[in-house]
Amino acid sequence: MTNFVDYLFENSRLSNRPFLLESDVVITHAQLYNTVNEIASALFERYGSGNHILLISENNYFFIASYLAIIKSGNTAVLVETKISEKDLAQVVHSCPLVAYFAQEKLLDLFNGPSVDVYTENDLNSLSKRKFEFCESVHPEDVAVIIFTSGSTGTKKGVMLTHKNLIANTESILGYLHLTESDRVCVVLPFFYCYGASLLHTHIRAGGSVVLNNKIFLGSVIKDINQYECTGFSGVPSTFQILINKTHFLSEEFPSLRYFTQAGGQLPNKYIQLIVDAFPQKEFFVMYGATEATARLSYLPPHLVKEKMGSIGKGIPGVTLEVLDRNGLPIKPGEIGEITAMGDNIMKGYYNDPEGTAVAVRGGRYYTGDLATVDEDGYIYVVGRSKNIIKSGGYRISPNEIEDLILSLEEVSGCVVVGVPDDVMGEAVIAVVQSGGAERENVSAKIMSLCNTTLPSYKVPMGIEFIDEYPLNSSNKVDRNRLKAVIMDRRSQK
Hints:
- The chain is of the alpha/beta class.
- The protein contains 14 helices and 26 strands.
- It has helices at 4-8, 29-47, 61-72, 86-95, 124-127, 163-177, 194-206, 220-227, 237-246, 269-278, 354-360, 399-407, 440-454, 480-492; strands spanning 18-22, 25-28, 52-56, 76-79, 100-103, 117-119, 143-148, 158-162, 184-187, 209-212, 232-235, 259-262, 283-288, 298-300, 314-315, 319-324, 337-343, 349-350, 361-362, 365-374, 380-385, 390-392, 395-397, 414-422, 426-434, 463-466.
């Protein structure tokens, strides 16, 4: 089978069109392909194939070239987040035998005297001295990448993605986004995160280009989109919420921009409406996925965003997406079940965790742990993550409905609903709110009035907490576990 990297460069390996634009750096497709080949050849000569090589770096040329070269050499790229703790990194290293590390120089302090070879940005030139094309054949089920999940729900799991998985997912995304060599995406999502990686993959395959934005202040993406004439921009919910609440994003015109994509969690309807109203000529793709699915499982076509507000759409091409009840049967409209998926993009399994794999993938079907309903047309609406369901007073409560209701208030710019331990109810429903400069007592009163008149009593929050900034994980999603810990600490001190 074709190596995933050869598949990516099949149409662009000789192209002098720009691929990477970062500050004053411009790298063409041909330059990148040649560098990747040279490094891959050096890696194969030194380590052979079928080994694990760790990569930890921010988004930059070093990450891109190293990542692709590891896969091209027939080895497996092991990706970890840049904000990983020394303890968690030690856990990964202990569980996954490595022959080498590729590490950004400023992150070397995370390693405690590694006993294997370590390569930094300064070593790329010495590795890329060969001037011939390297080709290492692979089997479709060979593992190309292991992505260790953020660990917000417990022990980190290494998701094993094969060459077949990556090719299938890339082909599908290219199809529904209609990407071409003219497309250029502004990237703020990290490449060690499956959503960020998919932006890299699709734009290499299409012959397009990427603009890297690693700046802390998200408002700088406005300048980058316009300066580099980007056609696409992708973000998780917090990306768009920060842009709307803290920049002049909605008042921009973005003449070059063709589309937005959003995944990585449910963006509240309030914000989706603001974006589609502000940019009626731009396509807004709501998407849904998981690392275990090589990033993508479903999308909602832009022309249906208003009609099917809140829906994640239907399965992407090549994926059978179904919502099943406890008996494994498709649910009827109005019922709640678990989202499941089948397709060539479903992971091989969790590294060194057959028990966890057996729970997540059964009979070739991936069980997401997400609860959802469907409408009469078969469009799927996520109710909530099963692990985020609040169990209060004998009721199972999804945070989503409460969050959307509270966000309908003009004074509220952010809302995350969590359950915290309660001696009487089991868990207390707590709304954690951002409200800008509004008077908090008045906002709190408005929230309670709205909830009391709209929601059944068991869903009404037992408390309102205000926060300036939500704790985010390495993928810029709200870290609900850390948020709960903050709220529990606050409440214990009252």
